[in-house]
Design brief:
Strand order of the largest sheet: 4-3-5-6-7-8-9-14-13
Radius of gyration: 22 Å
Bound molecules: zinc ion
Number of strands: 20
Largest sheet: 9 strands, mixed
Number of helices: 15
Distance between the termini: 55 Å
CATH architecture of the largest domain: 3-Layer(aba) Sandwich
Helix content: 25-40%
Length: about 450
């Protein structure tokens, strides 16, 4: 089978996930602490970067909170000293991810590789082995939803579901790779799992979805909103029962509009390139964190702990499943609020709200007379892939003007702006947007680093 999978590890991870799903808080904390110790021991012994970081700290789990947090840029700059397998080299991995023909292919026969998308700064490269993937799979399938409906009773494996993933399909991105992997693993139902690109014109996307007739659509909240408008206009007519969202913050208004338009249930999730399945929503509508396999520490702007109930500036992630590329106290730009009270569903896993992933849908004048919506993820992908620019902010000023802010100045800045302008204009024109004016502002600080995904694509009319 042309994918990274080990049936024994899958079974083992599934058993571990099931045993913690209904465990007491103490048993859960114990499982977490054992894994923390194992990850620290491994990182100390086999990762040069983390070995340096942990030097002089106690040889037990208390070292975790005493270790200084780590940012992605620092780890990426020392990639070959970060990973625990010397066969993994950044220059070779970059060559691999530069080749679109190899999206989702196993690397060195034992790893899956993906790049982060939609974040500022150069993309991170993330390596997963079969053991980490087995954990993500178990969390996804066993925690996603304890569904007791009659439909599920007669169709326990979801064989009659048709899953459409609507997202960025043109790069080595985690979600796309995992949809592809799911289709390969479940080859008997590969024809009922398919990806659809958000970069294509809306008319074509709608036609493709109508032809595929999905019962489940997995996508970003902004994409789900734009598709909901297509349902309301009577153009998109799909037998959808569930909409799975992730990758961006899902607001209450957006959720209600999506659910109402599709007549479907909306299930939100929380994940990242650094840890695919961080949390899923329970039947009481709360996101629960998979804290048997990860630690998430909400912190303020000086990386001091933020108590439950308060909104954090960022979070520090410790991944307890990945041993080939340790992620320990790794700064993620998400703003979160940990729940104070236990959830009524009875889960021992803490609940969390994710707030910091807000970008706007741009609505521009269309050639056909009606406005055309451009998704923030599509804009980001076009600028990253088409213009090779990762630090930017795009602000919509009116229905035909975009302002692009870039940190570079001088000749470099002018060249980057020219690439952004032509990539944006070509993309917008293909979507049916009337001739667009793209103005630039160089030498501008752009939200990045710890503020992560926030505010790269905004509407600010003047
Ligand atoms: Zn709950």
């Amino acid at each position: 089978m042309n994918t990274v999978m080990n049936p024994f590890l899958t079974a083992q991870a599934a058993a571990a996930v099931v045993s913690c799903s209904h465990a007491s808080a103490q048993a859960l904390a114990l499982a977490q602490q054992q894994r923390v110790r194992a990850v620290l021991t491994m990182a100390r012994a086999r990762s040069v970067v983390y070995g340096e970081r942990l030097r002089g700290l106690p040889d037990d789990a208390s070292a975790l909170t005493r270790m200084a947090p780590v940012a992605r840029d620092e780890l990426m700059q020392r990639f070959d000293d970060w990973v625990t397998d010397p066969a993994l080299r950044l220059d070779e991995l970059r060559a691999f991810t530069a080749d679109p023909a190899r999206i989702g292919d196993p690397y060195l026969d034992r790893y899956l590789i993906w790049e982060s998308s939609g974040t500022s700064g150069a993309p991170g490269v993330f390596v997963q082995d079969a053991a980490a993937l087995a954990v993500y799979d178990a969390l996804e399938t066993l925690r996603r939803r304890p569904d007791n409906s009659l439909r599920r009773l007669f169709d326990p494996m979801g064989l009659t579901e048709r899953l459409a993933f609507v997202g960025a399909t043109n790069g080595h991105f985690a979600s796309q790779i995992n949809v592809q992997r799911l289709a390969r693993l479940q080859s008997w139902r590969a024809s009922s799992i398919r990806s659809f690109s958000i970069l294509q014109p809306m008319d074509r996307l709608v036609a493709e979805l109508n032809a595929f007739a999905p019962t489940v659509i997995a996508t970003y909240p902004t994409a789900a909103l734009v598709l909901a408008e297509q349902v309301q206009r009577g153009r998109l007519t799909v037998p959808v029962r569930e909409i799975w969202t992730g990758g961006e913050t899902l607001g209450q208004t957006a959720r209600a509009r999506i659910a109402q338009a599709f007549g479907a249930e909306v299930r939100n999730s929380y994940g990242a390139s650094e840890f695919l399945a961080m949390g899923w929503e329970c039947d009481h509508g709360r996101l629960h964190l998979n804290t048997d396999w990860l630690l998430l520490e909400p912190v303020d702007d000086r990386q001091r702990p933020v108590p439950p109930g308060q909104v954090s500036h960022a979070v520090l992630l410790t991944n307890l499943a990945n041993t080939v590329q340790p992620l320990i106290r790794y700064a993620l730009g998400d703003q979160v609020r940990l729940g104070v009270a236990p959830c009524a569903c009875g889960s021992p896993l803490p609940s969390i709200e994710v707030l910091g992933r807000h970008d706007d849908i741009l609505r521009l004048r269309g050639t056909a007379g009606h406005p055309v919506a451009l998704l923030p993820l599509a804009i980001s992908t076009v600028l990253e892939e088409g213009a090779g620019v990762f630090d930017f902010q795009v602000v919509q000023r009116d229905d035909h003007t975009l302002l692009v802010r870039l940190p570079e100045q001088g000749e470099l800045g002018k060249q980057a702006l020219a690439r952004c302008r032509s990539a944006l204009m070509a993309f917008a024109s293909a979507q049916g947007v009337a001739p667009l004016r793209v103005i630039g502002s160089l030498g501008q600080a752009v939200p990045r680093g710890r503020s992560g995904k926030a505010c790269r694509v905004q509407v600010k009319r003047v």
